[in-house]
């Protein structure tokens, strides 16, 4: 018996892995009280990437939280479908869950009262579903957030942020849930039976509810998109529920397109058969092995683009044609007019459809040849680095895509088109000759003047004030330059 604590069994149940989410559970000894709360009294330690999130280390020994863990089982049963399928927060803010409330409060400063109240309600429901600490009512442990991102899951504690395979994380949660459920079976009260039934049925939902979760779209919008068509056929869903290319594209498109255009896009995706791309797969496997997970996203993108230029046999002074690269990998590039400027392209590369890149000729960037080249280069990055992780099924350029993934793809596209070392040569050009020199590089490398300007700036060469002022005038966001 621990000093100041309850008598505990010596056997410890350990689940999870040191690199991601891990729990160690030690039950208290059984007493005459066989209520669900009494039999699930025990000590639970929670760790994220081997850092203690729940509990503490005392004299070299881990000591967990003492509580009645039926509450965690009940919480996991309620939250399971959100943890497994929900990938967007309801406010549409690009942030990890631990940052979301702070960013929302900033937005609410100027928001009408009714909008703030509704968003506060939605945010509370989101936090209740994605924070494991919400399942320990009354003890108030530190938060442990779980948020799906494609085929991965972000696990976030006060001390650590780590991205791990989604299935690994769900398996860990399922194992701790099963351990608690087995213990609950020793009790016989109504709460025990209800908790075990809820845990057993934790994934149950109808097709409409699944589509809403997987896409982040409202029930009304899903109904409007489906209209008179068969929901299972339109969305390509069936039990057991699993995400697909159409759901992924819909999630990233959101409500940015007219409903008839979204339905037409779905129809185009459905007509694309799956295709083997062995050369792309070989290069993607190599790129992932070389990727340094400790680097910032823009550094990852730059390094991967430099590596690919070398693999393609293109010198630092050579020009890369992204359309030819995609054609060499047997990735189709197909026009589809989305009738809006806000979305430039949609890529699909799942087990049922693709890989294919649908280009919107009305896009803000893709209506121009250099913008089209940058968009295709952007998609090459996702094909190499994200199919096995954050974007396993689809991607929408300028859609609702994880911000760090997009930052990496933008840096990759810029470096693939014009290396920083080449753009750095502008520092040696006289101020009067600078516009002509920028134009010359843009034409030679098939890159926009804005990309040339950013590559020069990001090359870290010393630029005169006059050079910086001119290059800043070429970019769409001069305050960031």
Low-confidence segments, ≥5 residues, pLDDT <50?
1-5
Structural class: alpha+beta
Q: How many structural domains does the protein architecture include?
A: 4
How would a crystallographer describe the biggest sheet? 5 strands, antiparallel
Oligomer status: single chain
Shape: globular
Nearest-integer average pLDDT? 94
Helix fraction, binned, reads 40-55%
- Helix tally equals 20
Amino- and carboxy-terminal Cα gap: 62 Å
Q: Using only CA atoms, what is the Rg?
A: 26 Å
Descriptive key words:
single chain; 481 residues; alpha+beta; Arc Repressor Mutant, subunit A; 4-stranded mixed beta sheet
Walk me through what this model shows:
- By secondary structure, the chain is α+β, with helices and mostly antiparallel strands.
- The chain folds into 4 domains: about 15-200, no CATH class; about 205-270, no CATH class; about 280-415, Arc Repressor Mutant, subunit A, CATH 1.10.10; about 420-480, no CATH class.
- Helix content is about 45%, strand content about 15%.
- It contains 20 helices and 14 strands.
- Strands 1, 2, 3, 4 and 7 form a 5-stranded antiparallel beta sheet that branches.
